[in-house]
Design a protein that fits this description.
Alpha-Beta Plaits; 11 helices; 6-stranded mixed β-sheet; Rossmann fold; single chain
């Protein structure tokens, strides 16, 4: 059985005093297999969060239908809400409660005990049973992120919907968290994240969105393997950007306001470009080197 089927789904929102309609998703159709982890990619805004919230039953489609494990969102909304869980960084916790109180509350409303995978996940960020009496307000951002995630897992959802929840974790914690998620039998995951490591380590397929429409569904690992660049250097310039100067650098680049992102293929190219940038520091506020950027991959795939 398919875990999720979107059938010609359209979702609009009204905004402004005149109630102008904005189309978030238009005629979207795709399928997700039972137990699959699938990535949702696109620039902001392209409908990624709307797609996840529709799957969770937080929003309802204006047109079309969403089928979750054979049940229609139009007829079985309560069942779908019970068997899905949407988690994002915007989720608010009562920081005056202790960890134990928050966990107990979620255990009570979901009617489940916290599983071993949740305990393991908390321990990856240094939260052990003797720490459960601590108030949430004293936890680090990383610890709060993991707490949000395990509260969802207490629900034992069939489908976990993660909206940019993992991408800021440090590498070791991220690696251990992904390993735990992969070990949960039968869990279907739909993931929006800017961190390529998150998507590459969990997902086989990717849904590409543009302006609320699905433009492609493809194999993520093949797309990443085909992507010709390995690094970015992001440069913030003072004042207006000199396009002739950018072209003279000799590298692929994209301009975003006063910031330019150069795409590079090797460490040798990084060294060469940094030398050129250092010679022009009087016109530069800052620059930084990073790994793969999910939006760069998106635009490259879109324009192939």
């Amino acid at each position: 059985m398919k875990a999720v089927e979107f059938i010609n789904v359209t979702k609009t929102f009204k905004s402004g005093a005149m109630g102008k309609k904005t189309v978030a998703l238009k005629n979207v159709s795709f399928q997700v297999e039972d137990g699959e982890a699938i990535a949702i990619m696109g620039p902001s805004p392209s409908g990624k969060t709307t797609l996840l919230k529709l799957t969770a039953g937080i929003y309802r489609p204006d047109e079309g239908d969403i089928i979750v494990y054979g049940r229609s969102i139009r007829r079985d909304l309560n069942w779908i809400r019970k068997n899905t869980y949407y988690v994002s960084q915007n989720m608010q916790l009562n920081k005056k409660l202790t960890i134990k109180e928050e966990i107990s509350y979620f255990q009570e409303i979901f009617g489940n005990k916290m599983g071993k995978e949740c305990i393991r996940m908390l321990e990856t960020v240094g939260i052990y049973r003797e720490d459960y009496g601590k108030r949430i307000e004293v936890l680090s951002e990383t610890q709060i992120t993991i707490l949000k995630l395990i509260l969802g897992l207490i629900k034992k959802p069939k489908i976990l919907l993660m909206d940019n929840i993992l991408g800021d974790l440090e590498y070791k914690i991220l690696e251990e968290t992904l390993e735990i998620l992969r070990s949960i039998n039968g869990l279907t995951m739909m993931i929006v994240d800017k961190n390529v490591d998150v998507l590459n380590n969990l997902c086989e397929r990717i849904i590409l969105l543009s302006n609320g429409e699905v433009i492609d569904v493809g194999n993520l690992k093949r797309i990443l393997a085909d992507y010709p660049y390995k690094y970015d250097i992001e440069v913030t310039w003072k004042g207006n950007i000199d396009n002739d100067k950018l072209r003279s650098m000799g590298y692929q680049y994209k301009v975003m306001g006063n910031t330019v992102r150069f795409n590079l293929k090797s460490e040798v190219e990084i060294e060469e470009l940094i030398r050129k940038l250092l010679m022009d520091m009087k016109n530069i506020v800052k620059f930084q080197v990073s790994g793969l950027d999910i939006e760069d991959i998106y635009y490259w795939r879109l324009n192939r």
